[in-house]
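User: Run a structure prediction on this.
Assistant: Running it now.
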Amino acid sequence: MERTENDFFEAVSSLVEQIAGLAEDQLPYFESITDSIINDQMTDLYTIERNLDTMLSCCFDDRVLAMYKAILRKLFYQHPETVKCYVDMYYMMYIDADGDGNA
């Protein structure tokens, strides 16, 4: 059976919807983590970094991106190198995916 261009776009569209659904499912968890960090209930940098790693994979969702930024703002004065690293990773994943320096 020959696949058409339309079949390809339907498959990609389905995959995009599934990925967006995963981010949607994680929102309550991300909100809880963000609140814990902002309110100084979670202070262990290793644990915070693990959570930022998880959030980074869902930053295509504007709500997750807003929480990611809020955490980085909270960490900025205490851990500027960590913040720089996570800003750079975000940039590489979402802004400069081809590595040429152009957004």
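The chain has one domain: 5-95.
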